[in-house]
Write a structure and sequence with these properties.
The protein is an alpha+beta fold. It is built from five helices and six strands.
């Protein structure tokens, strides 16, 4: 009787340990911000190389792929536009990157040669769709002129 009781306790301990191991693994596997495997200098170099190929007085617009709906409340897994990723490292929907051949000037006489419009951060939606980089995240990845789309 005592041996049976010890075996049940051992099984419960193993199950509890397995459950906690899975929970800890899942919690630590999700990072707060998506990791880019290529450096921001790589992406900047690709944009600079593109500028050399563009004709005079031109601009290139690269759009993110849209989110596709599977059913009323479920979306397909999002696949980012590989071209947008190649030039920026950005993998989120609802964005557009404009790359100008020549430097442009804004109303404050600041010079720029690229504009990035990204999806606005929304904590309420992010709890369902995942964290967004927002303007601050895009500026940290090397873009000086980023705006909400």
């Amino acid at each position: 009787m005592k041996k049976l009781h010890l075996q049940k306790a051992l099984i419960k301990t193993k199950i509890t340990f397995l459950f906690l191991s899975v929970c800890i693994t899942v919690c630590f596997a999700q990072g707060p911000v998506p990791a880019d495997y290529l450096t921001k200098d790589f992406h900047k170099g690709r944009r600079d190389a593109l500028r050399k190929l563009l004709p005079a007085n031109s601009v290139m617009a690269i759009f993110a792929y849209p989110v596709r709906n599977f059913s009323n409340d479920v979306d397909y897994k999002y696949h980012p536009n590989p071209d947008l990723y190649y030039f920026s490292g950005y993998t989120e929907p609802n964005s557009v990157l404009l790359i100008f051949k020549e430097n442009q000037k804004d109303s404050a006489s600041q010079s720029y040669n690229e504009l990035f419009f990204v999806q606005k951060k929304d904590a309420r939606r992010e709890q369902w769709t995942g964290k967004r980089l927002g303007i601050e995240g895009v500026k940290a990845s090397g873009f000086s002129h980023a705006y909400n789309a």
